[in-house]
Amino acid sequence: MTELDALRTRRAFICDMDGVIYHGGRLLPGAREFVAWLYRERKDFLFLTNSSERTPRELREKLQRMGIDVEDRHFYTSALATASFLASQKPDGSAYVIGQPGLISALYDVGYSMNDNDPDYVVVGETPEYAFPRIVRAIRHVLAGAKLIGTNPDLTGPAEEGLVPATGALMAPIELTTGSRAYYVGKPNPLIMRHALKTLGVTREETVIVGDRMDTDIIAGIEAEIATVLVMSGVTTEREMQRFAYRPSCVLEGVGCLAE
Prior knowledge:
The relative contact order is 0.17. 37% of the residues lie in helices and 21% in strands. By secondary structure, the protein is an alpha/beta fold. Helix 6 packs across helix 7. The strands form four sheets. It has a six-stranded parallel sheet with strand order 5-4-1-13-14-15. A five-stranded parallel sheet has the order 7-6-8-9-12, with helices on both faces. The protein folds into two domains: 119 residues, Rossmann fold (3-Layer(aba) Sandwich), CATH 3.40.50; 101 residues, Rossmann fold (3-Layer(aba) Sandwich). It has ten helices and 15 strands.
C-alpha cells in the first residue's frame, strides 16, 4: 500500500480552502470530485480556513455558486476560533476590529461589543479596507493597554490576480509602532487544531490535514501529529517547499488526486 493509499483510508479530513478548493471565485481542478469522494466514502470532514472574512453560511453560498453544496457545519474559520478564544479569556468583552463582517459577526455571537473608545482588544483580520486612520486608531488603543490579536499569521493569501497581503502582513505596522507582539489564533496555533478534532469527534491518528501552505497548514499538522498533504495548487512552489526543515506526509498536484 502506498502512502497515498494509506491516507485515503483515514476517517477524517481537515481541509484548507484558499488555494486548495478555489482561487478567488475560480474552482480549482479536482475540487468537485474530491468533495463528492468525501461524501461517497462517508468521511468526516471540516473545511478549516485561516480566512476571517466570511461566515460559514457565506462560505457555503460561495461553494454553491461554484456547483458544490456543503452544509454549514462543515466550515470553521479563524474568525470563529478568535471569537471563541476571546470569550474564554474575557467574557462579554469589547474589541476594536479591523476586519470583515465574518469576524465582526463571530465576535457579536459570543457577546462581544465593538468599541472605538477603550476596547479590551484590538483584533485584526483580512480586509481590503485597510485605511491609514484605522491603523493609527488601532495603535492608539494598543498603546493605551488593549491586547493585540490576529486571526491568523499568514503573510500572503492567494487570489485570482496573484498573491495579496494577509493578516500577518497587515499587522506589521501596528506591531512595529507599538512594540507589541500580536497573538495569532488561526493555524498553526494548536488551539484551532484541537477544536477541529473535537468538532469532528476523531483522533489525530484518524485524521489528515490538507493544505497549500508549509508555514500554516503543514506545520500545524506536524506539530499536532496529524498526517499532512501539501497540494501544489496554491501559494507553495517546489522551490519554496525545499526551504523548510520539515516535509509533508505526501505532496500532490491538487486535491483531486485524493479522490479515487
